[in-house]
Specification:
heterodimer; A: 401 residues; 6-stranded mixed sheet; 4-stranded parallel sheet; B: 294 residues; mainly alpha; two-stranded antiparallel ribbon; two-stranded antiparallel sheet; 11 helices; 3% strand; globular
């Protein structure tokens, strides 16, 4: 009897985990999916706020396209590539999925890109950074929308080397994203006449970073390159402050989101250089969008959340323009239309899938410079899309050099 | 003298000291787990969540009521420990006569609920807890610059573990506790209120976890997931030390912290698996753990 109760409980629990519930696949709705880290290390970067942004975009579009209702499916990939890929496949097979937004985690997005190619479902990569997604892992249905490791390195590393930070040591998250970010930054450092002294690969979500930081300090490098993200980034910078390493080395945030700066506080984060594709306080349009989302999520949006909003609108506009959800027709339309909204001005999707748009090198304000809540960044340099994302490398077969 | 395996001795000593700091957290957490398992036979999967709650109690106490670090060090374990007693009375109590797997499932579920609730309210990115002003700054101990706060963590943890060991092994209260583990029915026949002892033990173990959480708050970002990253390692520590062995859990906690620290210099990529590797070897050679009884 007890076992039966337990089994029933488990079954109910499991059915709740899979969320969403069955949706009809009859083609009388347009289905947009969002597979993201909703419970782990990166859950605040896009997460539930990203889902809100997608819903907001659909509401702003009018809730329907081609006379069909627009529906959203959401799943947590738990930072596991197999979970993300199998959920994507399931939605494509059973729920009539038309487009997928890929949340954080490069490893998961690489796995999902393979499904996108197989099932011919456009994949807008929002939260992942690894630029292999538009190089060796590129597909005809992938779009890298918000930022990538190349643009992050071109922004932050260039700014720091040019300001005199010539020798670098990296603290690298030991997975696809971290190693790609380190490689991109190393290349930029060398091209600008700097030197890469060494790196230590840190397991994801380590509980303590002080050992690794002491190794960095022992290297004698001038710059501490933090090739990690989320909680790992915050904890490593916090420990670097505690051990006085920030006094002898200049920390470089190769990827930091406004939520990270908010949780660290300006006292710890001040002076840090970072690169972002979007900031809530850039102009009236960004502030208007941020204000609307702030009311729902009680935090200023990250670049990923505003990117998720923009990507949803961009896709829906393309569907409307071609009058169909045929993936090949929609992809062709996407690659020839300029993107103009509060996220990007004059952005365009290149043959290899990169959405080329303006990126900003920011410096975190000191507590004194910050005048109102969430007033965290000042613009150091505005990079054109071409400067930020660089030329087509030729590694993607769709886009020969 | 100045180099071992091509690594300067000063570097090794520095890393071992840092390993000791991490080991201090392992020791405090595995001590609580060992006490709870030893007396109640419950594998407390919610231990990491209560550690997180301890850190959040300190953080919210400061933000909402202006309670400082030193007061939090006492109050947070009391509040969270009381919460532990409530859960024991209301939930865990009903499962003692059943297979231990039920207790494991319940506490695992509790951990998910606690972490999920904290994430829902405070988000996943976490908040900073400042280092108390009396413990700021750094000590130059010759081979490294050690932040005063980290030295304090080692001191506090060794003291707490020592006091707990003394209470259980050398006092009358402790002998009653140990008697309850051996034969609770007989002890009850002598007129001892065994259910009360069980409740207090669970509360005590939870309070230890919460105390570790308060100690950790100024070192790491206070996030809903701070416990879950730590608790899996701590379980391995308890298995290595021997389930239920108090001295074993403390010694293996500190020792594994040091071994892990050493791994971080030699082969950093393996630093998150070394503890589990050792666990596998120990399980093969001595299934009851290094300090456990067969």
């Amino acid at each position: 009897m007890r076992i039966r109760i337990l089994a029933t409980g488990l079954a109910i629990g499991l059915s709740m985990l899979t969320g969403a519930g069955p949706a009809c696949a009859t083609g009388d709705t347009i289905v947009i999916g969002d597979i993201d880290d909703l419970s782990g290390n990166y859950a605040d970067v896009m997460g539930a706020g990203g889902v809100e942004a997608v819903r907001m975009a659909i509401a702003d579009f009018g809730g329907t396209v081609l006379g069909k209702k627009i529906e959203v499916l959401v799943a947590d990939h738990q930072n596991k590539p197999d979970v993300g890929a199998s959920k994507f496949r399931e939605w494509a097979d059973q729920n009539g999925l038309n487009m997928l937004l890929g949340g954080s985690n490069t490893g998961v997005n690489i796995a999902m890109a393979k499904v996108a190619a197989q099932k011919k479902v456009p994949l807008f990569v929002i939260g992942a950074g690894g630029s292999s997604l538009t190089n060796e892992d590129c597909t005809a249905y992938s779009i890298h929308y918000v930022y990538d490791t190349t643009s992050l390195a071109n922004g932050t590393a260039t700014a720091i080397v040019q300001a005199g930070g010539k020798s670098w040591f990296y603290l690298t998250a030991d997975y696809a994203f971290g190693t790609q970010l380190q490689a991109a930054a190393s290349k930029v450092v060398e091209e600008n006449g700097g030197k890469n002294i060494g790196a230590v690969r840190v397991p994801l979500a380590a509980s303590d970073f002080s050992s690794f930081l002491l190794q960095a300090q022992g290297s004698g490098a001038q710059v501490l390159g933090l090739a990690n993200a989320g909680g790992d980034f915050s904890n490593s910078l916090k420990a670097a402050n505690e051990f006085g390493i920030t006094k002898t080395m200049k920390p470089a945030a190769l990827l930091a989101f406004i939520t990270n700066i908010h949780s660290l506080g300006l006292e710890t984060a001040q002076g840090l250089y970072l690169t972002t594709g979007w900031y809530w306080d850039l102009n009236d349009d960004t502030r208007a969008f941020a204000k609307r989302l702030f009311e729902k999520i009680k935090a200023e949006p990250t670049m990923d959340q505003s990117g998720a909003y923009s990507a949803t609108l961009t896709y829906l506009k393309a569907v409307k323009a071609v009058g169909s959800t045929d993936p090949d027709k929609v992809m062709a339309e996407l690659k020839k239309t300029k993107i103009n909204d509060m996220f990007a001005k004059g952005g365009y999707i290149r043959a290899d899938g990169v959405m080329v748009h303006t990126m900003y090198v920011m410096q975190v304000k000191t507590p004194k410079e910050s005048k109102y809540p969430w007033d965290y960044y000042k613009i150091v340099r505005t990079m054109s899309g071409e400067q930020a994302f660089g030329p087509i490398t030729g590694a993607c077969p769709l886009a020969p050099k | 003298m100045s180099e071992i395996f091509g690594i300067p001795v000063a570097v090794i000593l520095g890393q071992l000291t840092l390993g000791l700091v991490n080991g201090a957290f392992y020791a405090m957490l595995s001590l609580g787990l060992a006490v709870i398992f030893g007396l109640m036979g419950v594998v407390n999967f919610a231990h990491g969540a209560f550690y997180t709650l301890g850190a959040f109690a300190a953080l919210l106490g400061m933000q909402w009521f202006g309670i400082n670090y030193w007061a939090a060090l006492v109050l947070a374990p009391l509040v969270v420990g009381a919460l532990g007693i409530v859960t024991e009375r209301l939930l865990l109590r009903h499962l003692y006569r059943l297979d231990p797997v039920y207790g494991l499932l319940l506490t695992f579920g509790m951990a998910l609920v606690i972490e999920g609730t904290l994430r829902e309210i405070f988000g996943a990115s976490g908040q900073s807890y400042p280092v108390p002003s009396a413990l700021r700054g750094a000590l130059n101990i010759g081979f490294m610059i050690l932040p005063v706060y980290r030295a304090w963590v080692i001191l506090a943890s060794v003291t707490v573990c020592g006091v707990t060991w003394f209470l259980i092994e050398r006092t009358r209260l402790g002998s009653t506790l140990r008697a309850a583990t051996e034969n609770s029915q007989l002890l009850q026949a002598f007129g001892v209120n065994v259910p009360l002892i069980v409740s207090l033990t669970y509360g005590g173990g939870i309070a230890l976890a919460a105390l570790a959480g308060v100690l950790a708050a100024p070192v790491v970002l206070v996030t809903p997931l701070m416990g879950s990253t730590l608790v899996t390692v701590v379980f391995a520590v308890v298995v290595i030390g021997g389930m239920g062995s108090i001295l074993g859990s403390v010694i293996s906690g500190l020792a594994l912290g040091v071994i892990e620290g050493f791994t971080k210099v030699v082969y950093p990529e393996a630093s998150n698996v070394i503890v589990f590797l050792i666990m596998a070897i120990v399980l093969i050679v001595r299934p009851a753990g290094l300090f456990g009884r067969e």
